[in-house]
Write a structure and sequence with these properties.
Radius of gyration: 23 Å
Largest sheet: 5 strands, parallel
C-alpha cells in the first residue's frame, strides 16, 4: 500500500509578486497538481514563475463534489497543493471542506505560510493588535449586515473585515451607525499593489473621504475598527437609564432606538430591559 501524499496549503501574493516565498515556489513546482480557486488567475501566477504544474479547479461550487476524489489521490501517494486567488487559502476562501476531509482520512496537511491581507493590514493600522477578531465579509443584505454590526458593538477587541468596492460606502455608513461615528478605524485598500492606500481616522471621517473620492471606492478593502474600549459599559448603563425613562411614554422599540442613538449603546443591549 503506497504511503499517503501531503496536501500543502500554500499562501500566494495578495498583490506584489515578490512576496511569494522560495518554499512556496518550490512546493508548487514539485507537487503533482495544484487545486486552485480560479485556474485562470493562478495560471497567470504560475506562468510568471515558469511553473508548469497542472491546475485543478476547486471552488465553492464544486468543493463538496470533488473533495473525496482529491483525497483519494492523496491516499494513493500523490502530493498536491491548495491555493486561493490571493493570500492564505481558507481565509474567506474555499478549501475548508477539502482540508477537513484530508485530515479525517489521515492525510498530512502542511502549511506553506505567506501573505495574508488581514495580517498585512493589522501590521500597519496602528490599532491594538494584541487581541483581534476577524469577521471576514459582512452579509450583502443591508438588514443582516446592520444586525451583525450591532451584535459587535460592544466587542473590545480590534475588529477586522473584508469588503468589496461596490459596498464599501454602505458598510462604512452602517459601521458609523452601529459603533458610533467617532470610533477610530483604518481603511486599507489595494495592499501591496500600485494604488495602495491606508487611511485612518474616525468612521465618520473615513466614510466622508470615501464618498468624496471615487478612487477610494475602487479595489479590495480591509476595514479595521478599534474595539469598544473601557467606555462601553458606561454607554450601556446610560442607554438603559434612558430607555427606562423613554419607554414610560413610547413603544419599547421606539424607546430603545432613541436611547441607543442618544447614548451610543447598541440597541440590542437595551431592548427588553426592565
Amino acid at each position: 500500500m503506497p504511503t499517503s501524499g501531503t496536501l500543502f496549503v500554500v499562501a500566494t501574493p495578495i498583490g506584489h509578486l515578490g512576496d511569494i516565498s522560495p518554499r512556496a515556489l518550490e512546493t508548487l513546482r514539485n507537487v503533482v497538481a495544484i487545486c486552485a480557486e480560479d485556474t485562470r488567475r493562478s495560471g497567470q501566477l504560475l506562468a510568471h514563475f515558469g511553473i508548469a504544474t497542472p491546475l485543478l479547479a476547486l471552488h465553492e461550487h464544486n468543493e463538496d463534489a470533488i473533495a473525496q476524489k482529491i483525497v483519494a489521490r492523496l491516499l494513493a501517494g500523490e502530493s498536491l497543493a491548495l491555493v486561493s486567488d490571493a493570500g492564505t487559502p481558507l481565509v474567506s476562501d474555499p478549501g475548508f471542506r477539502l482540508v477537513r476531509a484530508a485530515r479525517a482520512a489521515g492525510v498530512k496537511v502542511s502549511p506553506v505560510p505567506g501573505a495574508s491581507a488581514l495580517i498585512a493590514a493589522l501590521s500597519v493600522a496602528g490599532l491594538p493588535s494584541d487581541r483581534f477578531v476577524f469577521e471576514g465579509f459582512l452579509p450583502a443584505k443591508a438588514s443582516a449586515r446592520r444586525e451583525r454590526l450591532q451584535a459587535l458593538a460592544n466587542e473590545a477587541r480590534t475588529l477586522i473585515f473584508y469588503e468589496s468596492s461596490h459596498r464599501i460606502d454602505e458598510t462604512l455608513a452602517d459601521m458609523a451607525q452601529a459603533f458610533g461615528g467617532a470610533r477610530a478605524a483604518v481603511l486599507a485598500r489595494e495592499l501591496t499593489k500600485l494604488f495602495e492606500t491606508v487611511l485612518d481616522g474616525t468612521l465618520a471621517e473615513l466614510h466622508a473621504r470615501v464618498l468624496a473620492d471615487a478612487d477610494q471606492r475602487k479595489g479590495e478593502f480591509v476595514v479595521l475598527v478599534q474595539g469598544a474600549g473601557e467606555d462601553a459599559d458606561a454607554k450601556v448603563h446610560e442607554g438603559r437609564r434612558l430607555y427606562a425613562r423613554l419607554k414610560e411614554h413610547l413603544p419599547p422599540s421606539t424607546a430603545a432606538k432613541l436611547a441607543a442613538e442618544l447614548s451610543g449603546a447598541p440597541r440590542k443591549a437595551l431592548y427588553g430591559v426592565d
